[in-house]
Amino acid sequence: MAKTAIQPRARRLPWALPALFAGAALVAGCSLTPDYKVPPSPVASQYRTMGPWVDAKPSDQLSRDGWWKMYGDTQLDDLEARLIANNTDLRVAFAHYQQAQAFVEQVSSGLFPSVTAVAIPQRNRQSATRPLRVGGPDYYNSVTLGGEVDYDLDLWGRVRDSVKAGKDEAQATKDDLASVQLSLEVELADSYVKLRGLDQQTQLLQETVVAYAKALQLTQTLHGGGIVPGLDVSRAQAQLSSTQSMLSQNLAQRALLEHAIAVLVGASASEFTLPEETASLSLPSIPVGVPSALLQRRPDIAAAERRVAEANEKIGVARAAYFPSITLSAQAGLQSAAYAGLFSAPNLFWTVGPQLVQYVFDGGLRRGQLDAAKAAMDASGAIYRGIVLSAFQQVEDNLSLLSDLGTALGQQRDAAQAAQHAVDLALTQYRHGAIGYLDVVTAQTMALDAQRALLDIQTQQLSANVQLIHAVGGGWSADALAQTDASPSAGTFPMTSSHGNTE
Question: Using an 8 Å Cβ cutoff, are 293 and 43 in contact?
Fold first, then answer.
């Protein structure tokens, strides 16, 4: 790689140096970065499942910090607080954010002059056989004290664009931190909801085991009196044992969820326990706003958008490499062969002037760097659009689940009531010898399946509710959702990060 450099040394400033300063001032604001535009993404005017959007009521307001409190469970509140304080993944994300901030400090240093100082006290001996040696002592001192100031004029915006790119990455990393925190909070809430559902299943199965044990005792009594055959006893025993197996499997699933929650809150799975709780959790209403508001509220979308802006700035950095770099340098100091009298005028030296460096041939290096920067911009835009589309899908998915599961819950509740009525009738008729025990077993199995399905739908509904909170970006407020009915065109609205920065 060839390069040319000019670094004049003079006892007085050349006449061209003031002109250079003037020219630098005129082009100081130059930047080769393309005009930035948010990549366009399809944005509907309303969610299909919701129908026309309505304003959120003041009672619907909830801070992003503490959104889980709407479920009214103190145990969940305590677990979420422990997660924020102790979760290892959250600490890793925070460390990444700190690294990004430190990188901004590094690249920002290029905006300022660099100042170095040097002190070189030496004792030297010349070789007696050094080629072309002409006199001079064999032993001598060399003392140098000096300093140097260098400043990159950054005429083409390379440093400034690098700083902007670093700040965009830092903001994206901050949004990543918010996204990781929200994801972990949602994962914990979802696991807790499922654990509570298993507790309800455990209670149902325990009650069923007691009921089946009584039914087994009934068949044994009737069989002892010669009223029913031994087949009834075997069927009752099989039904009881099968339900006890279901109960054991249910407890095993609960243990796994309990272990997962322990890791989320930074506790040892061997020492962490959660008491069983069978009270039902409330199902809060979640205002989702208009689809365009989603782009301003989700931290993962904000992070993706900032990385598009970062990639755009890096195109400017790659373009600036085609132009010469100009550095202003000044050196001054004292140099002598003796320590005595070092601070005297004859020992003074200085040099000042610009250094211009221009690559003449690099074998396609700069062209390849620019092509790579443009490709990275295209990739970042595609990633952003993909995240936006996935976000809309997640909202629609969970809105559909909540709507359909609400209908299914009512239907399943009717089915459970009918199945329990069938069990009551079957047991009454069996005691009077009107039907065989197979009919009782069939009715009891249907009732248990119906009741378990009812609890399962309730858990799915709560889980969909939690996931919808994740899909809309966490907490909300009436002000944040106060959008007009007419959604702005894709790519024309301001992008707001999860921390309130508007670019």
Answer: no
Please report which residue ranges of 37-87 form alpha helices under DSSP H.
74-86
- pLDDT range class, residue 6, cuts 50, 70, 90: very low
Residue 467, token pair as written in the block:
């996931």
Tokens at 20, concatenated: 């250079």
Alpha-carbon gap, residue 319 to 307, rounded angstroms: 19
Q: Which domains does the chain have, with CATH numbers?
A: 25-86+153-323+358-481 (1.20.1600.10)
Q: Work out the number of other CB atoms within 10 angstroms of the CB of residue 108.
A: 15
- Rounded Cα distance between 410 and 446, Å, is 17
Contact 316, 161 (CB under 8 A): yes
140 confidence band (pLDDT: 50, 70, 90): confident
Residue 132, Ramachandran bin (φ over 0: left; ψ between -120 and 50: alpha; else beta)? left
Q: What radius of gyration, in Å, describes the C-alpha atoms of the chain?
A: 37
Give the global pTM: 0.80
Q: CA angle, corner 502, sides to 373 and 161, nearest 5?
A: 30
**CA angle in degrees (0–180, nearest 5) for 419-420-423:** 90
Count the Cβ atoms, other than its own, within 10 Å of residue 210. Answer: 12
Q: Which parts of 3-44 fold into alpha helices (H)?
A: 16-26
Beta carbons of 327 and 151 less than 8 angstroms apart:
yes
**Residue 83: predicted pLDDT:** 96
Q: Residue 389: what residue type? A: L
pLDDT at 490: 30
pLDDT in tens, 488-497: 233 222 223 3
- Exposure on the CB side of residue 26, measured as CA atoms within 13 A: 6
Outline where DSSP puts E strands in 154-292.
none
Of the pLDDT bands very low, low, confident and very high (cuts 50, 70, 90), residue 485 is very low
The 10s digit of each residue's pLDDT in 424-466 is 999 899 888 888 889 999 999 999 999 999 999 999 999 999 9
